Fold this sequence. Notes:
- 50% of the residues lie in helices and 13% in strands.
- The chain has helices spanning 2-11, 13-29, 35-47, 52-68, 78-88, 115-128, 143-156, 169-182, 199-216, 234-244, 265-273, 294-301; strands at residues 103-108, 133-137, 159-161, 187-191, 221-229, 251-255, 277-281, 289-291.
- α3 (35-47) runs antiparallel to α4 (52-68), α6 runs parallel beside α7 (143-156) and α10 (234-244) packs parallel to α11 (265-273).
- The longest helix is centred in the last third of the chain and has 18 residues, at 199-216.
Amino acid sequence: MAGFFSRLKEGLSKTRNNIVQGIDSVFSGFSSIDEEFYEELEEILIMGDIGVNATSDILEKLRRQVKENHIKEPMACKDYLIQNMKEQMQVGETAYQFEQQQSVVLVIGVNGVGKTTSVGKLAGLLKQQGKKVLIAAADTYRAAACEQLSEWANRAGVDIITGSSGADPSSVVYDAVNAAKARHVDVLICDTAGRLHNKKNLMEELKKMNRIIDREYPGVYRENLIVLDGTTGQNALNQAREFGETANLTGIILTKMDGTSKGGIAVAIQSELNIPVKYIGVGEKIEDLQKFNAEEFIDALFDVKEAEDRW
């Protein structure tokens, strides 16, 4: 889908200015590969939100490749750097296993990150694959959430289970699980609360939902996706860490990538937390959420033209 790649490329323009221009200036500014060259690269990658661990892994590998291949010219190792960044972000073949079997997907995240919107878009993506999808509107504390989600369910052409405003979110999950079983649904997607009176309550609510699903739907495949706002950089990383203490996070939906200078956070999150970025969002339409692909992300970041043909 050429449109998505060009939007991603356009969306990453600020990140490109932040990271890639700096990388290019290092490659063109040094005549030989020495310790100072590596230090400059390291600084640019860390400042570009790539993260300390990821940067360390990427450069350690680059040092090894330079030595093994007897590379003397800085420009001669640029392709290795790009390839190392791609490898750092590979998702793995089992990333979308939940599409192949009956599953419950909990979508987690604080308010304002695009969580409810992501639930709607994900439902639309799965529906396009021919899956029977049901949404549970379990974010009952935010007045507009149910309304907003009903609109997305309508757009995606899927059913939705709702509760009254302020109802116990877990009771909505309970009703939705039983509806999913009765209707032989392929994927049940649960929108969870993004804010309660305090963080402890929010985490307890998540645990309660998990217990209900385990009890009422034993053996169903489980997927816990956290939605993170790409524009918040390191803050997104901290949110994932906090939620990870309560929920077994299996993947990340990275939103608002169409206007951030902090796109490098996608690399950091995956490396620091060892949780794969599975979906990436670059706009408001249903088709603006797509499966994450490391090759295409880095190609878009470095403005590699050939990638356009693959979308």
